[in-house]
C-alpha cells in the first residue's frame, strides 16, 4: 500500500467515488447512496468543512474522511444532544470537530490508512476535541476509534432514519499516536 497518498480531497467533484468507497466499506443501498449524496453536497457548503482522500498512484480513491466544526443547530447535533445531556456530556457539542464519514475500501483496511486520514484531518483544526457517531457494536471501527483516544459518551443513540443504534464517541485533540 506504499503507493497510497493522503491529501486534500475535492469532495464535490468526487462525491460519487467517495460514496462508492462508503458503499463497499459500510454497505449502502442505491437509495441510501442517493440520500447521502444530497447530504454530502449540502455539508460541503457549511463553514469549516474539511475533506481528505487516500488515492493510489493512478488516482483511484480508496478511502476518505470529512468533517466540520459542530454546530448545535445541525441535524446530527440536535439528535444526539438529549442523549449527551442526560449523561452530562453535552458540552462536547461545543468547540468540537465532527467526523461525519470515514471509510476505507476493504482491500486497503488494516494498513494504517484510516489512522492517517483521521489524524491528518483533525491535527490542524482549531477545536480542542472531536466527536462522531459509530454503530453501537463491538466492531472493528469501535476498536479503531478507541485506539485513537475516542471514548463512549452516550449509547444507544437512535437516529430517526437508522435501523440500528449508534454510540456517540469523543476524543481530545490531538488524537493519540501509536
Ligand atoms: C474503521 C476504518 C475506517 C479503519 O480504517 P483502517 O485503515 O482499516 O484502520 P488502520 O489500518 O488505520 O488502523 C488503525 C488502528 O486501528 C486498529 N484497527 C483497525 N482495524 C481493526 C480491527 N479490525 N480490530 C482491532 N483494531 C483495529 C489497528 O490495529 C490500528 O492500530 P495501530 O495503529 O495501533 O496499529 C475502516 O476499517 C473502515 O472503513 N471500516 C468500514 C467502514 C466503517 O466502519 N467506517 C466507520 C463508520 S463509523
UniProtKB/TrEMBL annotation:
Gene3D superfamilies per the UniProt record, alphabetical: 3.40.630.30
Q: Where is the N-acetyltransferase domain?
A: 4-174
Q: Which domain of life is it from?
A: Bacteria
The region annotated as signal peptide is: none
InterPro entries the UniProt entry points to: Acyl_CoA_acyltransferase (IPR016181), GNAT_dom (IPR000182)
Kindly give the PROSITE patterns that the UniProt entry links to this protein: GNAT
One of this protein's Pfam families, by short name? Acetyltransf_7
Annotated protein name in UniProt:
GNAT family N-acetyltransferase
Query: Could you read off the lineage of the organism from its UniProt record?
Result: Bacteria, Bacillati, Actinomycetota, Actinomycetes, Kitasatosporales
Amino acid at each position: 500500500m506504499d503507493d497510497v497518498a493522503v491529501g486534500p480531497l475535492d469532495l464535490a467533484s468526487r462525491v460519487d467515488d467517495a460514496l462508492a468507497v462508503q458503499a463497499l466499506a459500510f454497505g449502502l443501498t442505491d437509495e441510501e447512496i442517493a440520500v447521502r449524496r444530497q447530504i454530502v453536497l449540502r455539508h460541503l457548503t457549511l463553514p469549516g468543512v474539511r475533506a481528505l482522500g487516500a488515492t493510489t498512484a493512478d488516482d483511484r480513491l480508496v478511502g476518505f474522511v470529512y468533517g466540520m466544526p459542530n454546530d448545535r443547530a445541525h441535524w446530527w447535533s440536535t439528535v444526539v444532544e438529549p442523549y449527551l445531556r442526560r449523561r452530562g456530556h453535552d458540552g462536547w457539542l461545543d468547540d468540537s470537530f465532527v467526523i461525519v464519514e470515514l471509510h476505507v475500501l476493504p482491500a486497503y483496511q488494516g494498513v494504517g490508512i484510516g489512522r492517517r486520514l483521521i489524524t491528518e484531518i483533525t491535527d490542524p483544526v482549531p477545536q480542542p476535541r472531536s466527536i462522531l457517531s459509530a454503530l453501537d457494536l463491538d466492531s472493528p471501527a469501535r476498536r479503531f476509534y478507541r485506539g485513537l483516544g475516542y471514548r463512549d459518551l452516550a449509547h444507544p443513540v437512535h437516529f430517526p432514519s437508522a435501523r440500528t443504534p449508534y454510540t456517540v464517541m469523543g476524543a481530545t485533540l490531538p488524537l493519540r499516536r501509536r
